[in-house]
Design goal:
Helix content is 12%, strand content 38%. It has 321 residues and is mostly beta strands. Strands 13, 14, 15, 16, 17, 18, 19, 20 and 21 form a nine-stranded antiparallel sheet that branches. A five-stranded antiparallel sheet has the order 1-2-3-7-6, with no helix packed on it. The longest helix is centred in the middle third of the chain and has 19 residues, at 162-180.
């Protein structure tokens, strides 16, 4: 999916441009296998980073050199309990959850278009005695490695009629509003899983496309090809925030997993849940199809973490508590 998540920031892209990217997510070549070189980059592991903040407080990140589109887990441990703990990532609130009195966790998403460079991650709280407990560490974001594809396509794929544009804009605004919300409690329980059983990977995350000579928005999810009618399962427990037909992504479901974590499932043949439903990991959400702007049956699966568009495969590798 290529919908923008933030306005007036490096992470915000126009709703229409993002929607156009989704419209061509399955033009010829979209199912091409990832090259061995790209696969190696995707799977490349980096060493964890541990920071001693003093006063018995330590921060641990699952990678010391995250790249665009990556996902990190933050662990905050303390010798004494910390109350009213808050997080901040590059100037934006970072929700944390507790695991006992001496450990807190958070998911830190690196948007696929965040500019490379050094950013600050900070946590703050107070001890039982009321003393401040703070820590700030640098995070060095590296350039991601994404394929670039130039395509000549029918004008209808890049130029919408006034009616279609109005519909896409309205739907895009609604989706943006959903992603901008943060449910304060964690709804998921345990590890995330692939939404199609038997599939362990997907293609095209972050691919940059040039359509008819015009640079378009990057592809913000995974394309997972599968036969029409294949069941699509919830990647983890959550609440159905959207279940409707959208102009570009067709029959679509968005799950809110709490703490700013959302998964997106597009191009379904049919939808088996309704907005407001509480679902468990593995619940059938619908069936694989090719509704919306798609040229073959597949699932478009996206992951958003506090507004950051990240590779969904990243959350599968974390041993979430």
């Amino acid at each position: 999916m290529g919908l923008s998540l933030r306005r007036n920031s490096l992470q915000r892209i126009s709703i229409v441009a993002a929607a156009v990217l989704l419209a061509v997510s399955l033009l010829p070549g979209a199912y091409a296998q990832t090259t061995k070189k790209q696969g190696a980059k995707t799977k490349r592991a980096t060493a964890a980073a541990v920071h001693d903040c003093g006063n018995g407080i330590a921060l641990r990140l699952t990678s010391s050199t995250p790249a665009q589109g990556g996902l990190l887990e933050l662990t905050v441990t303390s010798a004494a309990p910390i109350g009213e703990i808050k997080g901040d990532w590059a100037g934006h609130p970072l929700p944390l959850w507790a695991a006992g009195e001496h450990a807190h966790y958070a998911l830190l998403g690196i948007d696929l278009e965040r500019a490379p460079g050094k950013y600050e991650l900070s946590i703050s709280g107070q001890s039982a005695a009321g003393d401040p407990a703070t820590c700030t560490v640098p995070v060095d974001v590296k350039l991601g490695h994404f394929a670039v594809e130039s395509l000549k396509v029918a004008p209808g794929f890049v130029e919408l009629s006034p009616e279609d544009r109005a519909r896409a804009d309205t739907e895009g605004e609604r989706v943006h509003a959903i992603f901008a919300g943060v449910t304060p409690e964690r709804l998921w329980a345990g590890n995330f899983r692939m939404p199609l059983y038997g599939n362990r990977t997907g293609h095209n995350f972050g691919k940059r496309r040039v359509l008819n000579g015009k640079q378009e928005s990057p592809h913000t999810g995974l394309d997972i090809p599968a036969p029409a009618g294949t069941p699509i399962h919830a990647a983890q427990r959550g609440r159905v925030a959207l279940a409707q037909n959208l102009f570009f992504s067709g029959n679509t479901v968005i799950l809110d997993h709490g703490l700013g974590v959302y998964t997106f499932y597009g191009h379904m043949k049919s939808i088996a849940v309704a907005e407001g439903d509480e679902v468990n990991a593995g619940t059938i959400l619908g069936l694989v199809g090719m509704t919306g702007r798609a040229t073959g049956p597949h699932l478009h699966w996206s992951l958003l973490v506090n507004g950051a568009r990240v590779n969904p495969l990243g959350i599968l590798r974390l041993g979430l508590r």
